[in-house]
Specification:
Layout lengths: L1 H41 L4 E9 L7 E2 L5 E8 L3 E4 L7 E4 L2 E3 L2 E10 L2 E9 L5 E7 L4 E3 L8 E9 L6 E8 L3 E8 L10 E2 L5 E6 L3 E8 L5 E8 L5 E8 L8 E2 L6 H6 L7 E8 L6 E8 L7 E3 L6 E3 L1 E3 L13 E4 L2 E7 L19 H4 L5 E9 L5 E9 L3 E2 L3 E2 L4 E2 L8 E8 L3 H8 L10
Parallel strand pairs: 2-11
Antiparallel strand pairs: 1-3, 3-8, 4-10, 5-6, 5-9, 7-8, 9-11, 12-13, 13-15, 14-15, 16-17, 18-19, 18-20, 20-26, 21-24, 21-27, 22-23, 25-26, 27-31, 28-29, 28-30, 28-32
Length: 448
């Protein structure tokens, strides 16, 4: 009985021990499996990502042309790199999904704790379309032969190397003014003192006087086109002038027309002896002021009489170096039926003409050389802040001089009178455009 009880007790103990033994073995297997999974997660494949994109086209960073530089910062994540082909030979630059070959410079900015930061600088980007970069698979590999995935990165920058095209229209508006409209085929940058449409595709400006000059329009990418402004319908403010240089005068010139042009056409040495001018329209007619330097045969402190108007003209500054004539001055005359004011006088080079102070007739050989006349001139608009007056003179054997404006004297030298002149009133905001345009003619025989 005791023996049977003992055997039964041993069997019971064995039943209790077997489950614990099996459970311990199963737990060991689970522990080993979990350890292997953790190791796989640590050995991730190499990764390439773009951190930032910048563009030197300030204010219009989503657009660029070949003059701009695009900079990207790119991060490579991998501690155990065995193959590194991150260079300009493997990275592809695409514009409109076509491979292009701009200038590319790659610098390593940092290499720390499994992260490499590269700086990619792109320049001279030709072509047109969206800029993207392609990083092929496998340019970075680790010790387990794992490769980076390919990456196609869209910069969202539009490369545009085509200058804008445009159409122009002049519309008459109230009070004899004109509205000039420039409409482009793409978005334009604003131009100071011009109104720009809501969609940034058209520019408008109101003009009071006829004028012709070019301006530059610029698209978002920085491409530039020249647009020639031609205002013909505006008559709100008008400046008229006539230049006598020995040729018959039948009408006034205006709006930048060349007065005295025939002397240029003929290659003549005839000089400007008298200029007559006046203002008309919605402007104070006394606002126009002028002074000249008159170079005469008789010299300093002498005065002569104009053969046309019988007004005096004298050697040197008229009225003086620091004062101005206007239409209310003593030199006001009627010329071609218009109340005007006269500068200089007819008769500078007339044979046997004499000054008023004493008898000193001009010899024929001197008169034929046409050595005398107006050699310096200045105009200004009194008490007008929004408009400028621009003028340019032509000197025989020299050509056109640099254009002047708003009271500046223009002269080659006081002993070299000019033959022709052009004058225009223009909004002060546009003055530089007109001066730059007229200065293209410097030292030439331009006649248009």
């Amino acid at each position: 009985m005791n023996k049977k009880f003992f055997i039964a007790f041993l069997f019971f103990i064995l039943l209790l021990i077997i489950p614990f033994f099996y459970q311990a073995t199963f737990s060991k297997y689970i522990f080993d499996y979990a350890f292997t999974s953790t190791k796989i997660l640590i050995d991730k494949k190499p990764k390439i990502e773009v951190l930032s994109v910048s563009n030197t086209n300030t204010g219009y960073e989503k657009y660029a042309n070949k003059t701009h530089e695009i900079t990207l910062q790119v991060k490579v994540t991998e501690k155990n790199i065995t193959i590194n082909h991150f260079n300009s030979d493997t990275i592809q630059i695409l514009i409109n999904n076509e491979i292009v070959y701009p200038s590319i410079k790659i610098d390593m900015l940092s290499n720390h704790d499994g992260e490499i930061i590269y700086n990619i600088l792109l320049s001279n980007l030709t072509g047109n379309g969206t800029l993207s970069l392609y990083f092929p698979e496998g340019i970075i590999q680790d010790t387990l032969h794992q490769k980076n995935d390919s990456l196609n990165f869209n910069t969202n920058i539009l490369i545009d190397n085509i200058a804008p095209s445009s159409s122009c229209e002049e519309l008459s508006v109230e009070n004899n003014k004109s509205k000039y409209i420039i409409t482009a085929n793409e978005c334009l940058r604003p131009i100071e003192n011009w109104d720009i449409s809501e969609g940034n595709t058209s520019l408008t400006k109101i003009f009071c006087s006829p004028v012709s000059y070019p301006i530059l329009i610029t698209d978002y990418a920085g491409n530039i086109s020249e647009v020639f402004i031609t205002i013909n319908k505006a008559k709100n403010i008008m400046l008229y002038y006539a230049n006598y240089n020995g040729y018959k005068i039948s009408q006034f010139n205006h709006s930048g027309e060349i007065s005295g042009k025939q002397a240029i056409i003929d290659g003549s040495n005839k000089k400007s002896e008298m200029i007559v001018t006046y203002l008309d329209g919605d402007i104070d007619t006394q606002a126009l002021q002028a002074r000249i330097f008159d170079y005469t045969y008789w010299g300093e402190n002498t005065t002569a009489i104009c053969n046309y108007s019988e007004l005096d003209y004298q050697y040197g500054y008229t009225p003086s170096a620091n004062s101005w004539y206007d239409i209310n001055s003593k030199n006001a005359i009627y010329f071609l039926g218009k109340l005007s004011f006269q500068l200089g006088g007819q008769g500078h080079n007339l044979v046997n003409n004499s000054c008023s102070n004493f008898m000193k007739p001009i010899p024929e050989e001197i008169a034929n050389q046409n050595l005398y006349g107006i050699s310096g001139i200045a105009f200004r608009l009194k008490n007008i802040d929004t408009y400028s007056i621009v003028y340019q003179i032509y000197v025989p054997e020299i050509g056109w001089l640099k254009a002047s404006s708003d009271g500046e004297e223009t002269t080659y030298s006081h002993d070299k009178p000019f033959s022709a002149i052009r004058i225009n009133i223009i909004p002060k905001s546009e003055k530089t455009y007109l001066i730059d345009y007229w200065n293209r003619a410097i030292y030439t025989n331009y006649m248009d």
